[in-house]
């Protein structure tokens, strides 16, 4: 037995997929600038990385605006309720066809672990990557900002890379967890069409 | 006197590792002096009658000064080089005098392209290919381009030519055009015209390099690019070998360039040379005649000061010229040989070091113990001419990657080259473990589903 609910509105889906494309681009070009491989060529990689970063900033401005005007930001309020049940589910229940401890609805579309994960993204990964990226990009303005005594390119790049590795790990888990819905593809389908198949 | 280093410099005082020094060889060397008759120590620099206006202002191209005439032009036809059978015609001085004008590339080049005893020998970034350069060779001076003369950048004021190699401007942060004639600024720097953020907004990241990287580092990818090789080393210690008839020898290398000359020793020439790169703050220290040497080490004839931390230095391209030259083994000081002259003691007439050094040091007012050896030396030359078009500038990867141009320059963090190895190990390790973790989790789910337990 399954039913369908409309969880992801049109802007949300646009936001998600363009953000996905930008983050993949940023990772690809970023690790090239880092020196891990040669793909586009250093100069081109820097250019693409910069354009993608600014695009992502713009997208986030719109997304933040959207979340506040629609009240959807409440979806990200963290809760510890049922977190233990979720962990137990991923460690055991998922293998034995136990019922999912979280009932997805239009008003609560993220399970408690998801909420914590996204909160972690907001509070830890995001500041690391954005602050270090901002100083990396505006290297020439350090003196004017009076921060050149405290910063070195080496350490700014170091923390930017720390953030990048965190995003890479997040990305791997994120993609894998898309397969853990009602069916293997039901989460992905929901993100494309907006309609999620639920139990 | 250099006010920065308190060293007394100038051609009369310095020693280099090419022809080594001017004293005792005045008549030969002063062919390039803008004055007539500097043949010994007693030349009067203040006498206006001695000033040679024509060498800089001749527009006919016929005025020529030859080594050995103490700065005089040829007043009558003469055979040059001696015993060569070639006749150099004397210029029609009246005709020359009626055709004076602004200095051209050829005027300046008549001396500056030929420093060190021949075309391209000394600088590496100045040779006769610059008289009429292609755009590829020099984007500013190309005739089919901007057609700059030397004086366009080295804009003189009252015959004072700015742009000194004794006290170069390594870091020029005064953005914007410089006023001609202002004494506190050097109008011949790149920044004097281009400012400190010269790249367009679409390439603004390149502007972030200008705090540490000299323009020349990227925009002069190689020197001696005009098809003429420059001398890269000169070993005086092998000079003086004669053939079985007692006659001096000249040998060429496989590329047809001079490789040995009994008068001068062994040479090495190279074209299209990739520069070396150093931190440079504009201060140059010279090893002078009275400087004590440690002959077990390579003697730096001059030394470019600079460091990544002094806030005044930039990474500059240089030509590093190496050689071996005579020194006094008793006093550990450099010696000056008397090379040129129609006398018994000059090295080029009888190939006797003892006599040549004795006479050279006597003429220079120094002492010679009678014992000499040859010490290894190196000299640095800033590379600043032969500016390539932007498409031929260095690409990012030439520094931002493995085996980059700046690998020997300390104190730089270069993205793409200098990743922290520990961060990489840990970061990729975590990514790999994460991937393995989800694969194992997914694998277990598939396995359990197959067993009929009904997992998703």
Overall description:
The complex is a heterodimer of chains A (199) and B (456). Chain A has 199 residues and is mainly alpha-helical. Chain A has one domain: Up-down Bundle (Fumarate Reductase Cytochrome B subunit). Helices cover 63% and strands 4% of the residues of chain A. Chain A has 7 helices and 2 strands; from the N terminus they run βαααααααβ. Chain A has a two-stranded antiparallel sheet. In chain A, α1 runs antiparallel to α2, α1 crosses α6 and α4 runs antiparallel to α6. The radius of gyration of chain A is 19 Å and the shape is elongated. The mean pLDDT of chain A is 91. With 456 residues, chain B is an alpha+beta fold. Chain B folds into 3 domains: 96 residues, no CATH class; 245 residues, no CATH class; 35 residues. In chain B, strands 3, 4, 5, 6, 7, 9, 11, 12 and 13 form a 9-stranded mixed β-sheet that branches.
Which key phrases capture this entry?
heterodimer; A: 199 residues; mainly alpha; Fumarate Reductase Cytochrome B subunit; two-stranded antiparallel ribbon; 7 helices; 2 strands; B: 456 residues; alpha+beta; nine-stranded mixed β-sheet; 11 helices; 14% strand
Q: Enter the CATH topology name of chain A.
A: Fumarate Reductase Cytochrome B subunit
Count of distinct structural domains of chain B? 3
Number of helices of chain B: 11
Structural class of chain A: mainly alpha
Which chain pair has the greatest contact? A-B, 39 and 37 residues
Unreliable runs of chain A? none
- Largest sheet report of chain B: 9 strands, mixed
Shape, principal axes of CA atoms of chain B: globular
Structural class of chain B: alpha+beta
Mean pLDDT of chain B: 90
Strand content of chain B: 5-15%
Order of helices and strands of chain B: HHEEHHHHHHEEEEEEEEEEHHEH
Number of distinct beta strands of chain A? 2
Instruction: Tell me, briefly, the overall form of chain A.
Output: elongated
The helix count of chain A comes to 7
Could you name the CATH homologous superfamily of chain A? Transmembrane di-heme cytochromes, Chain C
Main sheet summary of chain A: 2 strands, antiparallel
Q: Helix-strand pattern of chain A, N to C? A: EHHHHHHHE
CATH class of chain A: Mainly Alpha
User: Regarding quaternary structure, how should these chains be classified?
Assistant: heterodimer
C-alpha Rg of chain A, in Å?
A: 19 Å
